[in-house]
Amino acid sequence: MTSLTTGLKGRSELGVALLLGAAGVLVFLDANGLVTPYSKSDPVGPKTVPFIVAGMLEVCAVLLALNVLRGGKGEAEGGEDVDLAHPADWKTILPLAGAFILNILLIDWAGWVISGTILFWGSVLALGSRHYVRDGLISVALSLLTFYGFYLGLGIALPAGLLEGIL
Amino acid sequence: MDVWSSLMDGFATALTPMNFMYAVIGVILGTAVGVLPGLGPAMTVALLLPVTYALEPTSAFIMFAGIYYGGMYGGSTTSILLNTPGESSSVVTAIEGNKMAKAGRAAQALATAAIGSFVAGTIGTALLAVCAPIVVKFAVSLGAPSYFAIMVLALLAVTAVLGSSRLRGFASLGLGLAIGLVGMDSVTGQRRLTFGQPLLADGLDIVVVAVAIFAVGEALWVAAYLRRTPLHAIPVGQPWMGKFDWKRSWMPWLRGTAFGFPFGALPAGGAEIPTFLSYVTEKRLSKHPEEFGKGAIEGVAGPEAANNAAAAGTLTPMLALGLPTNATAAVMLAAFTSYGIQPGPQLFTSQGPLVWALIASLFIGNFLLLIINLPLAPMWAKLLQLPRPYLYAGILFFATLGAYSVNLQAFDLVILLVLGALGFMMRRFGLPVLPLILGVILGPRIEGQLRKTLQLSAGDPAGLLGEPIAVGIYVIIGLILLWPFAYKLFRRSRPVAAPAGGAAPLATEAGDAVHSNHNAVYTNHKERP
What we know:
The complex is a heterodimer of chains A (167) and B (529). Chain A is mainly α and 167 residues long. Chain A has helices at 2-8, 14-32, 48-69, 90-110, 112-126, 132-154.
C-alpha cells in the first residue's frame, strides 16, 4: 500500500490518462447505442468515426499512462505572467470559478448588468486587487457599457433581468 | 476573371468609407488586444468575434483582416518590451528584441519590427493573391478521396511534426475529435454524444469552444500561477530608425519573408520554424556576428518578417482549400461557417467579391498598421502596465460576454466553464491546444469527406485510394508517422553519429541563447491563443 502511494505521488498526470480513457469509453458506448439500418447511400454510417475516435483515445490513454509511469512528464506552459516556481494557487482559482458559476446562475434571472458586475468584481478581488470601491465602480461601469454597447451598437439584447424597465 | 481586376474590385469594396472605418477599428482593436500580455492573435480574434456579428459578412471580414495583422503586430511589441513572448512564433523576436530594448534601442527594435512586418506582410499578401487562385485551380479538380487525405494530412502533420510529445499531441487531437462529434449527425440525423440534452443537438458552437480553450483556460491557468511581481516593461518613445539601421534591416526583411511564406502555406507550417531559420541565417550572414545575443537588429528584422510572411502564407490553404493550419486561421474559418459561408475551393467562385475584399483589406490593414502603430507605440507600451487582476478578470468578463452573446443561453456558459477547465488541465500537463481546436473544426468535415468517398465507391475501402493525389498524400503521411521510428533505427545502427544527429548542428550554431529558446519552442509547442 505504501509503495503504491509513493508510486502514485507526483503522478497526477495519470488523471489525464484516466480522463482520456473515460472519454474513449463514453464515445464508444454512445456510438454503440445508435441504431442505424444499413443504408446503401451511407455505407460508413454514423458509428464508424466515433469508433475510430474512441479507439484513438483509448490507445492514447494507455500509452500516456505507461509514459507517465516510466517517468515521462508533460511540460507545463509558461507565459508572460506565469511563474511556475510556486505551486498552483487554489485560493485564487476557486473564488474565480465561484464568481463564474454565480454569473451562470444569475445571468438569466438577474440580468447581465448585475451578474456581469458580480463576475468582474469577484474575479478582480479573487486575483488579488484590494481596491474594493474602485473595483466595484469599474465593474458596474463595464457591465453597463457592454449592455448598452451590445444593444445599441450590435443590436444584441442582453438580458435586463431584475432591472427590466429601468435600463 | 484575372487576379488583377478581381483584386481591384476588392479594393473598391474595401475602400468604401464604412468598410475602411471597419478596417481602422479592426487594426486598432487587434493591436490593443494583441499587445496585452497573455493574449495572442487567435484569442484576440476569438474574443472579438461577437463584435462582428452585427455586421454583414464583407465588413466583418474586412475587420478581421485588421484584427489578424494587428494581433500579430501587438504580440511582437509585447515580446520586445517584456521579453516573455506570448506566442511561440515571437520567441525568436524576443531574443534580440528585448536585448535591444534593454540597451536603450527599444525604439529601433519596434521600428524594424513594424516596418519589417509591413514589408513582409505586403509581399506575403501579394503572394497570397497570386498563389491562392492557382491552388484553387488545382483543387477544384480534386474529389472527396483527395480532400479526405489532405485533411488527414493537415491534422496529423500539425499533431506529429510540431510539439515535443507526439503522444500528448494525439491525446489532444482525440479530445478535439470527440468534441467535434457532439450533435446531430449530418447524414442520418442521429444524435451523438448529446446525452438527451436538446441544447447539444446542434453541436457545440465553435466560438464557445475556442473562447473556452483559449481565453478561459488561459485566464484560469495564469491565475493559478500569477507572477506576484509583474515583469518590468521597458518604456519606449516614438519608434524610429537611423540610416545605418535601415541598411542592416532591409536584407533580413526580404530573406525572412522568403522563409516565412512557404512554411506558412504548408499544412504543418506554423511560424516557429521559419523564424528560427531566419535567425540562424541572419547570424551567419551578419557583418556584426558579435552583436548577436546582445541585441542585433538583424535578429529582430529577419524573424519578425518571417513571422508576418508566415501569417500571410497560412491564409493560402485557408482560403483556397478551407484548411486551417494554425489557431488563428482555425478561428477565422469558424467565423466563415458562422456566416453560413462554406470554406473550400468553391469559395473563390461562390464568394469571390468577399474573398477579394478580404485580400484587399489585408493590404490596407498592413498599411494602416504601419501608419497607426509607429506613432501609437508609446501608448501600446502603457497597456503592458495594466494591473494583472484587471487584465485577467477582463478576459473572463469578455469571454463570458462573447460566448453568451452567440446564442443568449446560460447553458453555453456551463460549456465554457467545463471546457475552460479542460484548457487549464491541458496547460498544466503539457497537452498542446492546437490539435484539439483543429480536431473540433476539421473532424466533422473529415467525416463528411470519408462518407462521401465510400458512398461513391459503394462501400469499397479501395475508393479511398481512387485518386492519384490521395495515394501520394498517404505516402507523405506514412513518412511523417514512420520518421521517428526510422530515425531511431538509424541511430541505433550507427551510434557514433548519434550525438550530432538531427537539428543539433543548427542549434549549436545559433548559440546558447537560441538553443534554449529553440528547445522551448519545440518542447512547449505552445501556439498561444
